[in-house]
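Write out the 3D structure for:
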Amino acid sequence: MKELIYSRNAVYETLRAQRRQVFSIEIAEGVQEKGKVEQILNLAKEQKIKVNRVPRPRLDKVHQNNQGVVAEVDKYPYSDVIEILEHAKGEMPFVLMLDSLQDPQNFGTLIRTAEALGVHGIVIPLARSVEVTPAVVNASSGASEHMLIAQANLSQTIDALKANDIWVVGLDQAGAEIEAGSRHLKGALGLVVGSEGEGLHDLVRKKCDIVLKLPMKGRIESLNAAVAGSVALYLAYLNRNT
């Protein structure tokens, strides 16, 4: 099944990653061939991908924030947990698990943060969770195209990580506060971030080695999933590299 990827960064990173087939690219008439657009055209030429100039309203029907670039591609190539662990070979595994996240913007933000910090892969549930859609690719600025993302049963995934000596930490408001230099965020790590409203499901929470929360000094009760998950990922990154 084909889908339409939109925005300059999303299309550019899709071309760079070369993980899925790009059938054609459409660029709005009047868009100047410089910057990211020039890079897209160069990669398209190298990869022998057809590029068409089309009226802007045609691209606006795909998405209003298309930035003058749309690519027709095949479906996102999901990975699996085994491939993620193999990808970490020679390093301490760093895996992000998302428990029923629903918002594409939050998912895209977490993918972008995870990719920037060297996370080896992301695992999302098989059902009742946002998938890697064009909106997610756009929200991640194309980082999704470089990230290994698997769809799997989270409970079984946690068991598999534990069997590989990976410490599993849940992030939830019901947990204990994360302390500076926390030993729980060092070494081989699987971090589980709960959904925007419900947090971690009971079975997933029970499977975690420990459940932690970010310290909050202000008046609001919590941060959204993308912000909380990104902060926790950065804390883990700093602790793992100390």
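The chain has nine helices and ten strands.
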